[in-house]
Amino acid sequence: MGLVWFLSAQPDLSSGLKQDFVLRKAAHVTEFALLTVLWARALAGLLPRAREGRVLLAAAAVALAWAAIDERHQHFVQGRVGSPRDVAIDAIGIVLAVLLLRLTPLGARLGVRPRSRARAT
């Protein structure tokens, strides 16, 4: 969250490349996906008895709130613009992270959801 805040405080993050817009939006998706995964892992450790869905929902809510706060912060940085569209792009990363944790073995490895137990037949 500190890194997001620091980067948001920079007046200009333009790379000068032709694909700059796409690269910046891909960075939004990636950083908020990672933030969601980190929050899910932290909350799963703090609340070991919480159900998976609640942990993921809470992690997504924190990340989405931070996306909105970050865009509001950018509104006050010279050369930057706070945009609801960027919050929506951040939300894409958040949703992708929730799906990744819910549908792949990564969620179990990070302790966000219980490991599957083999049934004895």
Overall description:
This protein has one domain. Helices cover 69% and strands 0% of the residues. The C terminus is likely disordered. The protein is built from 5 helices and no strands. Helix 2 packs across helix 3 and helix 2 packs across helix 4. The chain is elongated.
Short recap of the structure:
With about 120 residues, this protein is mainly α. About 70% of the residues lie in helices and about 0% in strands.
Task: Write a concise keyword list for the protein shown above.
121 residues, mainly alpha, disordered C terminus
> How many strand units?
0
What is the helix/strand order? HHHHH
Helical content class: 55-70%
Query: Structural class, from secondary structure content?
Result: mainly alpha
Compute the number of helices. 5
Total number of domains = 1
Shape: elongated
Distance between the termini: 47 Å
Poorly predicted spans: 117-121
Average pLDDT number: 87
Summarize the biggest pleated sheet: none
Q: Strand-residue fraction?
A: under 5%
Rg of Cα set? 17 Å
Give the topology, please.
Layout: H1 2-8, H2 20-46, H3 52-75, H4 84-103, H5 105-109
Helix pairs in contact: 2-3, 2-4, 3-4
